[in-house]
Amino acid sequence: MKETGQDPHAWFDGEAGPVVRPYAMTRGRTESGSRHRLDLIALVVPEPAAGESGLDRNLSPEHLDIVERCSEAPQSIAELASGLDLPVGVIRVLVGDLLDDELVHVTRPVPPAELPDVNILREVINGLRAL
Predict the structure, then answer these.
(1) How far apart are CA 36 and CA 22, in angstroms?
(2) Which DSSP state fits 97?
(3) Which of 69, 80, 109, 125 is the most exposed, fewest CB within 10 Å of its CB?
(4) What are the helix and strand counts (H, E) for the chain?
C-alpha cells in the first residue's frame, strides 16, 4: 500500500463527493407524489406555515435547507440545485414534497405563448405617439 500521509483507517475521502447518494434523499423517487411542473426558473417561496418550529421533526435536512434558503429570498430551482450542490431532479422531488405539504408555493414563468406579441406592442406605442 502506498503511503499518502493520510490516516490508513479513514473511510471517507473528501474528494469522493457526498456520502449520501441523491436517490437516497428522495427515497428512490424521480417525481413527487403530485405532478408539479417545476421549470428551472420557477421561483420557490415559503408559506407562513414553513416558519413553525415543529417542522424539523417531520422534514429531512435537505427539505429544511430549501425552506431556509427560500426564506432569505425566493430562489429558483436552478439556484437551489447549485447552492445545495444537488442534481436538479432531486431538488424537483424535494420541492414537490414541500408543495404537497403546503410549506412553499411556486411562481411559474409566463409561457412564451401567453406573452404579448411584439408587433402589437409597437402598434400601441405608435398609436400613443400619434395622440
Answers:
(1) 20
(2) H
(3) 125
(4) 6, 3
